[in-house]
Design a protein that fits this description.
alpha/beta, 13 strands, binds pyridoxal-5'-phosphate, seven-stranded mixed beta sheet, four-stranded antiparallel beta sheet, about 400 residues, about 10% strand
Length: about 400
């Protein structure tokens, strides 16, 4: 059978061991193909139920609920731990990835006295801003090329948000690396423990499907926890929360990275999103994601390259995360036309990158086939030239 035919994509779906998971998500609009799970994942039905229950619990238990709620940041962290090769007690959920990066970077600079911080210019903006800001505040040197630095604090994404390239998870001797695993968690196998990784942060609203603005996580290897102190001294990180007269004396464990009151209701969604991901199994998810991005690349080569598209994602599967990025000189209008005229939802990163995200919990092989078929027809017919090319606020 022709491996680029729709019939073959249907066969792959029939034999997909994860196919049943799709039914466990809210899928609104039959015709729409959602390829933006690498930005905002879909809503799991069980999360909707658990969120309703959490709201009701607030209504009935009121302040008494805190006896249990207080442990949720750690509990949700423990649910994420097996997905990133961490141990129980090494992951804490709360705040945004941005704030967590600030906490870990500030703590590492205080503890290890690095005089240099380095972050590539291609890194996600917030990662650069946090290091740029800390460099300015503390008078340390900022570098954009970590090439030959020996004693520095580094921030590095495991999967590049723009190109989808998967980096090698390896510590650099003499340096402290904070890994940003936002585009990797739930999509690729990560073993922070085996790699000897010390610090990491990541989002939960992408492949973990925890919802818009859901709290992020931070990871601190056990051995380091007692040595690092959050630059935000808050009462929730205090050893004895209600001993209000004492001066700041942080918890001995990862809870010292808490600052203010945890956002209980969204934390429930993080725990459930991580639970479903673990149930599917990260090995099976990675295998499916690789097969699907492989199909995407093959269809690109056959149909899209002749139309002026260029692949920005590595062809080598071992160097690829779970999204595929296509560059095109008219990328913005093509992206708009896909959404407005072809009911395919990708996203766009300036200046010319169209990102197509594969979320193996709910993306089908036929979704990929149909999306690329709609894309090639649309561009071949010049339909993208009919859309308004005014830049949008959110892309
Ligand atoms: C790689 C990466 N790091 C950090 C962030 C920022 O996360 P937050 O909005 O939770 O601070 C994002 C957001 O998409 C991201 O993709």
């Amino acid at each position: 059978m022709d491996e680029l035919s729709r019939a073959y994509a249907e066969v792959l779906d029939e034999h997909d061991p994860l196919a049943g998971f799709r039914e466990r998500f809210v899928i609104a609009g039959d015709e729409t193909i959602y390829l933006d799970g690498d930005s905002l994942g879909r809503l799991p039905l069980s999360t909707r139920e658990r969120l309703h229950a959490a709201i009701d619990e607030w209504g009935t238990r009121l302040v008494g609920g805190w006896d249990d709620w207080i442990d949720l940041p750690l509990q949700a962290g423990d649910a994420i731990a097996p997905l990133i090769g961490a141990q129980a007690g090494e992951v804490l959920v709360g705040e945004s990835t941005t704030v967590n990066l600030y906490k870990l970077a500030g703590a590492a600079l205080d503890a290890f006295r690095h005089r240099v911080v380095a972050v590539a210019e291609t890194e996600f903006p917030t990662d650069r801003y946090i290091l740029e800001g800390l460099a300015a505040q503390r008078g340390v040197e900022l570098r954009h090329d970590a090439g030959d630095v020996e004693d520095a604090l580094l921030v590095r994404s495991l999967v590049d948000y723009r190109t989808g390239e998967l980096a090698e998870l390896r510590e650099r001797p003499g340096c402290t690396t904070i890994w940003d695993v936002s585009h990797a968690v739930g999509a690729v196998e990560i073993d922070l423990g085996a790699a000897g990784a010390q610090l990491a942060v990541g989002c939960t609203y992408k492949y973990l499907n925890a919802g818009p603005g859901a709290p992020a996580f931070l990871y601190v290897a056990q051995a380091l926890q007692g040595r690092l102190r959050s630059p935000i001294w808050g009462w929730m990180g205090q050893r004895d929360l209600f001993s209000m007269e004492r001066s700041y004396d942080p918890e001995p464990d990862i809870r010292r990275f808490m600052a203010g009151s945890p956002t209980i209701i969204p934390l429930v969604a993080v725990e459930e999103g991580a639970r479903i991901t673990a149930e599917a199994g990260i090995g099976a998810l990675r295998a499916k994601s690789l097969a699907q991005t492989e199909l995407l690349v093959a269809l690109h080569d056959a149909w899209l390259a002749p139309l002026g598209f260029e692949l920005a994602t590595p062809r080598d599967g071992t160097r690829r995360g779970s999204h595929v990025t296509l560059r095109h000189a008219d990328g913005w209008r093509i992206c708009r036309a896909l959404i407005e005229r072809a009911a395919v939802i990708p996203d766009f990163r300036r200046p010319d990158a169209i990102r197509l995200g594969v979320a193996p919990l709910y993306t089908r092989y036929v979704d990929i086939w149909d999306a690329l078929d709609r894309l090639r027809r649309l561009v071949a017919a010049g339909e993208h030239e009919l859309v308004d090319d005014t830049p949008a606020r959110i892309t």
